Each structure stands twice: as structure tokens, then as C-alpha cells.
Amino acid sequence: MRQLKVAGHGGRKKTTFKRYFPIAVILAAIVLGLSLSGYLIVKDNYNPSDLADESAPLLDWVEYVVESGDTLEAILIKSGVDPDQGYKLIDSLGKFWDFTKIRPGHLIEFGFDERAGLLEFVYTASPVDIFQARLVDDTYEIEQLAVKIEKRPAKIQFRLENSIYGDLVSIGELPVLVEKIVDILAWDIDFFSDPREGDLVTLSVNKKYVEGKLYDYGRITALEYNGKIVKQSAFYFEFKEGEGGYFDQTGKSLARNFLKTPVKFTRISSKFGMRKHPVTHQLKHHYGTDYAAPVGTPVWAMAGGTVARKAYDKYGGNMIVLKHSKGYETYYLHLSKFAPHLKPGIRVRQKEVIGYVGTTGRSTGPHLHLSIKHHGKHVDPLKMNKVKEITLAGELLEKFTKAYRSHHSANFGL
Ligand SMILES: [Zn+2]
Q1: How many structural domains compose the chain?
Q2: What is the pLDDT of residues 332-376, one digit of tens each?
Q3: Span 125-182, pLDDT tens digits
Q4: By residue range, what is the domain housing residue 166?
Q5: How far is the CA of 363 from the centre of ligand 1 (A)?
Q6: How far is the CA of 287 from the centre of ligand 1 (A)?
């Protein structure tokens, strides 16, 4: 009896009521004329048979917003769902929705009927991930509601004034856009220390809307960071069928063998310009570079490689050693936590989160200590030559230059 269908955006009456109000008034008049005890639910894809069904019960709707630490089971119990029905619901839903993906802020709506118990259940994980369960003949039938996503190309430009998160949100953008920017510039900009007030950021991106509301972005196609310390241009280019990356105006990839910094700039990283520049130092037990960052800041693998060591050390605290190609090794010290999946022997990608900044071992405050060795000898992470992965040439470079110029003259006025 289980089924997964793509259905119309039905049953979501609250948010769309206004839009359909005039129709609703007319329909309500008809319905009231037919049956005074009738009721009306306005649906996006109005189906006349809904109105004919006078036996459909009026549901009592209860909303629940997922809190941290919640499990679906616990939520069902808390919300007064009959245990037997709760079990059936989890069983049906679990067939295609992974409930370990349950996150704080997700919305759950319960439609209770006095006699039948939980008759309807709507789980909204995001504006485009909405699941609806309906009790039919003692089983829950599941539908994923089809949502129309509208994409609009946009040029976004802003100056850094306070924090990159705050500056973007103040012009109506979503924080997720910062992650996309940081991700593209991870080889060139240390967002803890390089940005300055007045730096100008310009980018082209598709904005995604659901019911007129911005909810996400597509891939950033072009990005210009024009700063006092760093200037960087990034343009997305497919150099092979289905394979692409970001290149600067000369056709060199932004991607290099090593990232600029092992600490990932996130929302908890506070204002820019407040952090000290990374410091290179040489002590008896301690050679490398210190990156000051709040406890819990994610730590990136500087390059792809294999986990050689994951251990606690009297000096280094919680530490990770990665082995890379061409005789390189990277050391990450004083971590508060390791990434849960991390084990010696496993492969990690460049920019994969391997742990979190802390102050374990011999450490005076929250920071990440990074050491890089090449064939057993220390190299300075701040001064080492980091090799570009790809340089476009020949016909590819011509194609790239043409695409870059036509985009920039049309969008960036250059
Ligand atoms: Zn250090």
C-alpha cells in the first residue's frame, strides 16, 4: 500500500490563502449553499471532488518545530501520536526519507482527527523538501509535494563594512552565499585575516525562489574580489564534458595543491580584521604556523591525502597527521574534536573538514597549529609555493577568454 508519488502542492492552505481569497469566497458560497455543515480547504490545485467529499473530517492541526537533539520517535510521543500509528508512520516514511537528516528548525504539522487519530502528517525539511503522509486503510501513504522552483539570474555587489555575513544579510541575501564565496576563494583568501573594510565583492549567480521567496542559490558563475590586501577573479569554466572549475582571468585554476589556510571561515568566526595574521614560529617542540580562531571552527584538510595519525599528544593535544603525494605531510594540533568519520588509513579530500579548532595540549589559547613537512623537513606554510592545478592553453584558453569577456562585458560592465 506504500507509494511515493509526486503530487501537486496540495494541502498547504495557510500560506497561499490570500492569493486564492477571491476564489475561496465564491467556492465558500457554493459550499455553504450545498451544506451548511460543510467546510472548505483551499488548495493550490483545486479539485472539485474535494468539495463533494462531505465525509472528510475537519482536522485539528498542531505544529511542531524540530529542536536540537530531537528524534522523530520522540517528537511523535511528545505530540501525542498513538504509539501504534507512530510506528506505522515511521515505517512508511523511512522507506524513502532518511530521518537521521532531521534538523533543528524543520517544521512538522500534525492533522489529528478525534476518532481516527493522526490522519495527516506534513514534514517540511526545506521549501523544496516537503513530505505528506495520509492515513488510508490503516496505512500511511506518502507523497513528496512537487514544488515549483523559479531561477532568476542576478548580479550581487556589496562592500565589506562589518562582517561578510552581516553585510550580505543586510542586502537581503542568505548566509549560505558566504559559504559559496569562501569555498571558491579558499586557495587565495584567508577570510580571518585578509579582508578589509571597503573591499568590494561582485558576483553572478542564479537565485532560487519558491513561492516568490528566496531560498537558495545555484552555482556562482563569476566572482570578483577587489580588496586592499587581495584581488582575485574567479570564473566557472567547463574544461571537459561534465568537469569544470574556477579560473582567473588568465586561465589559471584557482585550485592549488594546498589551501591558503586550514581554518574554515564560518558564521562563528566573528568580524573580519579582528584576527591576528597567522604567525610563523620555531620553538623546541613546535615549528609551524598558528592560526587564531574560535573553538569549534572547522579545520580543513590542506590537500587531499590519507590519515596517517589521529592521536592525543602531550604538546600537540588532539592532533591529526595527513600524508599527501610528492612527500608532503601536514600536522594539525590542539584540536577540540576530530571529525566523527576520521580514522587512520582513510582518504580525505582537500577542503574536507577533519576536526575543529581547540586549545588541547600545550596551548595558550584557541588556535590551530599547522606544520607542513616535505620529505621530513619543515616548510613554512605561509611562504611555500602552492602549485596551481590547471593552466588552460590553446583552444581551451581561447574558448575560456571569449566566455570570460562576454560575461564580464554583459554583467560586470568591464
Ligand atoms: Zn603553534
Answers
A1: 3
A2: 999 999 999 999 999 999 999 999 999 999 888 899 999 999 999
A3: 888 889 999 999 889 999 989 899 999 999 999 999 988 999 999 999 999 999 999 9
A4: 149-247
A5: 8
A6: 7
Chain length of the chain: 414
- The CATH number given to whatever domain includes residue 210 is 3.10.450.350
Domain annotation covers residue 398: no
Q: Which residue from 58, 57, 52, 59 is spatially nearest to 27, judged by alpha carbons? A: 52
406 within a domain of the structure (yes/no): no
Q: Determine, yes or no, domain membership for 242.
A: yes
Q: How confident is the model at residue 45 (pLDDT cuts 50, 70, 90)?
A: very low
Helix (H, G, I), strand (E, B) or coil at 305: strand
Give yes or no for residue 269 having a pLDDT over 80.
no
Residue 22 has φ and ψ, to the nearest 5°, of -60, -45
Query: Measured in angstroms, how far is the CA atom of residue 160 from the centroid of ligand 1?
Result: 30
Residue-level pLDDT at 363: 87
Q: How far is the CA of 343 from the centre of ligand 1 (A)?
A: 24
258 CA distance to ligand 1 middle (Å): 19
Look at strands 139-145 and 4-7 and give their pairing.
parallel
Global pTM reads 0.76
Q: Are residues 137 and 188 in the same domain?
A: no
Whole-number Å distance between alpha carbons of 245 and 302 = 18
Q: Could you give the 3-state DSSP secondary structure of residue 302? A: coil
Q: Which three cell numbers stand for residue 207?
A: 537565485
Please report which confidence band the pLDDT of residue 390 belongs to, taking 50, 70 and 90 as the band edges: very high
Distance 125 CA to ligand 1 centre (A): 41
Q: Please check whether residues 189 and 133 belong to one and the same domain.
A: no
How far away, in angstroms, is 370 Cα from ligand 1 center? 7
Going from the Cα of 290 to the center of ligand 1, the distance in angstroms, rounded, reads 5
Could you tell me which residues are beta bridge partners of residue 112?
60, 118
CA of 269 to the centre of ligand 1 (A): 19
Distance 364 CA to ligand 1 centre (A): 10
Taking the centre of ligand 1 as the mean of its atom positions, its distance from the CA of residue 316, in whole angstroms, is 9
CA 302 to centroid of ligand 1, rounded, Å: 16
